[in-house]
Every structure is written in structure tokens, then in C-alpha cells.
Amino acid sequence: MSKKLIRQKINDAFLRQALAAFAKQYPAARAKAFEGTDFEALRERIASSRKAALRELPSLLEKFRTNAEKTGATVHLCSSPREALEVIRNIIQEKKCDFVIKSKSMTSEEIRLNSYLEKAGIRCLETDLGEWIIQLAGERPSHMVMPAIHKNREEVAALFSRETGQPCPPDIPSLVETARITLRDAFLTARVGITGANMAIAENGVIGLLTNEGNARLVTTLPETNIALIGLEKIVPTLTEALDIITMLPKNATGQMITSYVSLIKGPSPGKELHLVLLDNGRRELARDPRFSAALTCIKCGACANVCPVYEIVGGHVFGHIYMGGIGLVLTPFFHGDENARAIIGLCIGCRRCNEVCAAKIDLEGLILDLRERAAKLPAQKPLIGVFMKNRTLFHSALRAAYFAQKPFQGKDGRIRHLPLALSGDTAGRSLPPIAEQPFHNLVENPAVKQERSSKKNRQKVLFFSGCLADFVFPEICRDTMESLSMFGFDVIFPKEQLCCGIPARYSGEMEIARDMARLNTEILLREQADFVVTICPTCTISLKHDFPKLLAEEPSYYQKSAELAAKVFNFTELAARNIKIPRDKMSGMAVTYHDACHLKRGCGVYTEPRMVMKIITGQPVVEMEGNDSCCGFGGSYAFKHQEISGEILKKKLYAVVATAVGTVAVDCPGCKMQIEGGLEGIGSQVKVKHSASLVAESFRSLCEVKE
What we know:
The chain has 35 helices and 17 strands.
């Protein structure tokens, strides 16, 4: 994806305003729509039934075809977009038509139906308001449900004025009336209408459409011939499964209780024809894929785009190819080839918000990471990355060299604000902390921080897994962690052989290197018979606890070991919440807000524990910021690879922090600390960013000072 296009979308004031407004109102509208509905239970049913339907797809396809033909419909099974296009063209030409009307269909966008028909001399008129707008503009949809969300009323008025030859004022009632008047004759004169479908029910051959405008009903009822283009994944066994989708789709898509129109069509009306064009385009093969078949369970609600921080910044014309949002990144290589996926697959920041709202419980972030493995890599990259990550001495030497190399770019306070040459823009208004003079794994041998083993046999043993960023940039957080764990009554050990958790390799698509790191770290961390393995980086937590068993699933001996390790892994605040005790009269009373790291809340399910810890330390609840669990824009190397997008995401977080008017924001991720701290410093804010482990250690030190 070109930086020029990304910059253009970032600087598109209306696009940013429209997407930000929708992103702000969507969560509340969605929550209200789901009142009285168990979202988790509903999406569990959808996920389960959709996966079962994919396993039975061949038989369901034949059942749907048989039952649909019994109703009088003509069914066309098309293996490729070309075949589907030719079938649709032939139906239209057999009717001696050169004009058709159409309602919104993402599957028609997938096969580029409109442009194909135009080249065949057939005019295809979109009748959905949003689709008509982008058709007039010569663009593609920027959202699966709201295709023209990127257009403002002035732009629409100009398009309508050009189309009608009459001046059209830029107010919404006038625009809607112009569309109604202009399209009315088309409904009355067209002899062929084309639609999509939200589901195709195998037990009775019925197709279902959910729409908010009356145009789809007119398209399916007024013309003498109706063509419905349907992806094979839309086939469901019975009406029961269809009703779950009908319940879920509007709530998750736009925050509506139900769409304005729910149409179930069973065969053609008397004297008319109904053609059902079923599109494969690799779907049957994908349905057999043990890893990626989950992508076909998507019900196309677009919620993954609605909550995506990257989509909110750049929109669907950047964050997608034909299909947009998280599911668009996953479907693109299968429907449109790896070459079209390469440009967009790296745009995902990995915040997992899409996973949280997906109607079918698709692990979108996991699928995106696995797809990065498919992306082409320079052959020299793999050994270079692997050598550095697996050789601790070499890795340390490189960082030591970087420590000296950074000095010319440090300010008086030691922070880095400008990088050299091609990297000069990579700080993006943020300052960066320097690499520490001594990493923690060196300092831990220093008597000042060395932990003494207790002779008490009943003390539990904790292994501390620091993660690379804390070790080399924030050794003080590591020191605070070990001091705090010791104060909780644990024997604390820092395994000096520990390596990177492997996430950088996994996020780069280098799965073999990630597996190597999983094997090595599993062996290292199981050498000591510890009760717990504690991390202070949520990305490390999710890596050790969830990714290692997945990466080593095909290696029985290592899988068993990784599962044993995973059971011992906890984030610092999980143990702190269980063990910390501060007398009420010694609580600081300090007002603290809290930023939820993406991987901690949505990856590890840790949300209440940090708040419990903060309340015990301060004596009062956390002052919640708006969007407390929204991404800060770090995403590891993402902050440097896509620094403009990262910087824009960060701005939203900074505004939320400052709006709380507190002096401290607590975090549980060294990366989030680096990102938010640098951003606050960049805007001149005095708010301090502190890791929970440091706040706990400060509280313990304060108690010790009082005792002395």
C-alpha cells in the first residue's frame, strides 16, 4: 500500500470526521441493540452452526439446489467468477435486455459484475442509495454495509447534479428525494433485476435478504426476471440457523434492532423467473482448509471494520481490496490472489478488537498472522532474523552497539526525538526512550538488585520472564517487578538464558523462527521447577500462554511441554491482585487512570485485576478514560513501519488520557508505556506513565520508609 495513498486518507478531513463519528456512536448503539440478547451465546451458536455447515457443504449444496428447483427457481453452480459473469450475461441477453437494475451485493463486487456488464453493452444501475452514489463517483464501496460512508453531502449533491442535469442542494432530504425520483422510472421499466442474498436455506430452497431500503424488494418483485448472486458459504441448513443470522446481523452491523426489510423468497412469482447463481470461486476448497475455513463463517456484518483503529484512520479504500476490514484482509488472498493481499496484510496492528466483536467468533488476528507466512520474503531475511533472535550473545552485542550509536540523537534528558536520514520521520512527534546503558539481565547480578533465596520451604517459586523491551529499555521496571514479587512472599528467579518470546518473528510471518523460539524458551523455562512464570509484557504473556501450544501443536513432546508451561504463565497484575495488601491508612490517595493493553484485555482476558491492584494501592477506583481499552497505536514494529497511522491512533489515546485530568496513567505493557509516554512528552503534558509493577514497588518502598 503506497504511503501517498495512506497520507491522502489521513489528510481527508471529512473521511476522518465521518469514520470517527461512527466509531464513537457505534459501541453505544450496538450495546443498546443487544440489550436482552446474550451476544456470546448467539455468536457461539452461529460459529458452531456455520462451521458444521461448511463441513457438510457438498450435501447442503445439493439439498439447496434440489429444493430451490422444486420451487421453480433455476440454479446455476459456477466454479469461477468468469463462469458466473457469463451465466448472468447470457440470462440478460436471452431476454434481449440492455438495461438491468441491481441492489447491493458484495459478491457482485467480488466478481466485478458491473464493469463486466457495461463492457458487454448492458447498463447496470445500482438502486441502493449508497451504491448508486459510489457508482456515479466511479468508486468501490469503502464499507460492506455502508458503502458510501466516505462521501459528504456536498460531494453527493455534485454527483446528483451532474447526473440529473439539475442543481441539487446539499441537504439530506433533497438528496434522498432526488434519488427517489431519478430511480423510480428504472424500477418500472427494467425487465431484469439482480440481487445478492444474506442466506440460502437448504431445507426449503429459500433465499433471505436483509435491507434498510425498499429498493431490494422492488428489484426482486417488479422485473420479470430476478437473478440472485450468492456465495456458497451463505448456505445454511434450516430456518433456525437463518434466524440467528437475522437476529445478529443488524445489531452487529449498525446497532439496529432489526433491518427495515427482511425478505424471504421462495421461488419465482407466477409468470416470472428466478435464477440463483451460486458462486464457488475457491470456496469449496477453502471450506476444506483446516486453518482458514473459519473465514467462510463470516456473515458480512462489517463489525470488524467498525471497531478497527486502522480502518478508522484510513478507511476501506486502504484497509481492504474488495472486502474490507479484518475479514477483508483474510479473504483477499483466497478470492483475489496473494499479490493483492501483500499490499494490505501488514496494515493490521494486531489489537484483536475484531476478534472481540466478530459475529462468528473468527480468530481474525490469528488468521492474519498465519497469512503473513504466505507473503513473499527476501531469502536473506530469514537466516538473519533467526540468527539474531536465537543467539542471545549476538543479540545483546547488537543492542550494545545501538546503545552507543543512539547517543548523537539523544536530547539533554536522554530521550530520542530525531532519527537519522531515512528514519528521520519515524518518531512522528513522539520521543523515544534510549536503550539502557546496562540491560536488566546484567544488573540482576548486581548486589543492589540480586534476589536472595529464602530457606523457607513453603515459599512458592516464580520465574520472571521480562521480555526484550523491558530488559533493554526499561530495566527499572524489571527491578520493580522482582522486588514486588519478593515482597509478595515468592522466591523469584530471573532465567538469564531466556530469549525473545518470538512474537516479532510471528508478526513478520516467520513461523519457523517463531517455533524455534517456542521450543527453546519452553526448554529454558521448564528447567526450574517453578510454580509460576510471570511476565510484565502482555504480548509475551499471550505468546507463552497461547501461541507456544499452537505453534508446537504438531510436535507431541513439545506440545505437552508447552501446555505445561502455559498453565504456569501469569501476567504480573494477576498475581499482584491475589497477593498485595496495603493498610488503608497507607494508601497513596493518588488519582490514576488506566490504559488496557490490547493483548492483556482481549488476548489474555485480564481486565479487573489491574483495577483491583490500583484501588488497593491508591484507596480509590481508577479514573476511567474514554476508550480505556482502545489501541494506543504501538503494535511493536508497527509504530515504525506505519508511523503515520500509529501516530494518528495515538492522538486519540492522548486526548483521552489528558481529559481525565489525573497525574498518572498506569499501564501493563512496556510498549504501551513507550508509546504513550513519548506522545505525552511530545504534546508537553506532565502526566506520568508508569507500569503497574513500578507503582506496586513504589507503594512497598513507601511502607518501608514509614517503618524505618
